[in-house]
Amino acid sequence: MTTNRAANLLRKRESPQRPTFLELFFDLVYVFALTRIVHELVLDYTRGHVAETLTTTLSENGETLLLLLALWWIWAQTAWTTSRFDPFQPAIQVVVVATMLGSLFLAVAISGALAETGLLFAGTYAAIQVGRTLFFALTMRGHILRRVNMLALVWFGASAVPWLTGAFAPELTRNLLWTLALAIDYLGGRLGWPVPRLGRARESPWAVAGEHLAERYWQLVIVALGETILTSGSSLLRGPIVAERTLALTLSFLTTVLLWRIYFYRAGQILGEAIAASADPGRLGRSAEISHLLMVAGILATSAGSELVLMDPTGQAKPAWVGAILGGPALYLAGRSLFEYVAFARVSRPRPIGILVLAGIAPVMVGRPPLGVAAAAAAVLLGVAVSDAIRAHGRPLEQASPPR
């Protein structure tokens, strides 16, 4: 039997499903955290020999990707928490604010997370996951979510071992251990945290508050786009404000506007409707989560590319720089294609065409001025946005039709 305390913590079905100011407040930390991720990407693209070959840079980016995936998992589970539980309850507010503080420590530790601040990063991450899950396992007595959190606690306890061990290990071993830890965390969430003899969790947060989670992902996209504006504006101030760099800032802003426009074109407005209309909200919600992870990663790579252009707009673009300037929009379009499939069970042609064009022009852009590479990326995104506008002109708004 569910206790009164547990029942009071839960979000009521009749309650408004819009995100609260507490959740918007929580996202402020992620403006800083994503800025630190972009800073690490720029370092990856400018460290000596690393900038000369795309393959070497991708291996360097793998370390930064580990940090992004850890931050993403914390953010996503916090969004699930505020979808399941009432954010106006003081206990839930304490959990969210404590997670916010922990996320701030993670962001601070990012710059040296694979070196001297490894223990701070790994210890904070493990403390958030284990501590938050333990809290709900203790407070949700008599409710099915208590079992869910007890199962998850086993998995988070298991992943804490490689997280903490990796903090003391040499670089290669650390990377392998942290990759293992993230694999445990992500796999556990996808499988429902199965434990021998105890089974697995079958409750999906998307089945309860799809509309709320949809808006939380919208807000994270806005946070990522805002980070791009913050980074490019700050980069301009770090050097002479001349015509070439001013044009680079203008291109960065135009690219950000186009990313925003492409995201919110119809599919971005009806994710909640698509989830509600789906026969399997949990499966569709997981696809939506993956699509947003790809889009956010694409936005961050695009932001790093914009900063590289501002550093040397008229020089010669190295292969790794071209990979960031063109690869970021391509990754974004890939995530947006999956997002469109979630909403409409189809992918419109301009998106994959845009990806192919970006990949096709990449080899000829090596050695060209970074400003020209950025202009080419913006032109491709403009083509996608214009095709969307032409397709929508004079037609009624398309309704959600998720895959069956």
Explain how this protein is built.
The protein has 14 helices and no strands. The model has no long low-confidence stretch (mean pLDDT 87). By secondary structure, it is mainly α. It is 76% helix and 0% strand. It is globular. The protein folds into 2 domains: 4-203, no CATH class; 206-392, I/LWEQ domain (Up-down Bundle), CATH 1.20.1410. Keywords: Membrane, Transmembrane, Transmembrane helix. The chain crosses the membrane at residues 21-39, 64-82, 94-114, 120-138, 150-169. It comes from Micromonospora krabiensis. This is Low temperature requirement protein LtrA. Pfam families: LtrA.
Describe, in short, the structure shown.
The model has no long low-confidence stretch (mean pLDDT 87). The protein has helices at residues 4-9, 21-46, 54-84, 90-109, 118-139, 144-166, 171-191, 205-237, 243-264, 271-277, 281-311, 319-344, 350-365, 370-392. The protein is globular and about 65 Å long.
